[in-house]
């Protein structure tokens, strides 16, 4: 890529670069609220253990304990969702305010 510093690229060079490298745009991948909530359950092995304990305590007759564990799982997931969702909204707001420079 050869460009003169004062004049920049010619139209032909710019077109060649676009076809070779693609458009000069940033990818913005916005996640839906549902996918953010589902992500709270992926790869969280402690959560899997707690779900197993909830099911086991329910079938062993400890329904009160299983309800407590279930509500703790639910609370943890909702708080994780809220944290990630608000962070995404903050990033979106910041991205609207900045101008990317090469």
TrEMBL record:
SUPFAM superfamilies: Calcium ATPase, transmembrane domain M (SSF81665). Residues 1-62 form the Cation-transporting P-type ATPase N-terminal domain. The chain crosses the membrane at residues 45-61, 67-87. InterPro entries: ATPase_P-typ_cation-transptr_N, ATPase_P-typ_TM_dom_sf. Keywords: Membrane, Transmembrane, Transmembrane helix. Gene3D superfamilies: Calcium-transporting ATPase, cytoplasmic transduction domain A, Calcium-transporting ATPase, transmembrane domain. This is Cation-transporting P-type ATPase N-terminal domain-containing protein.
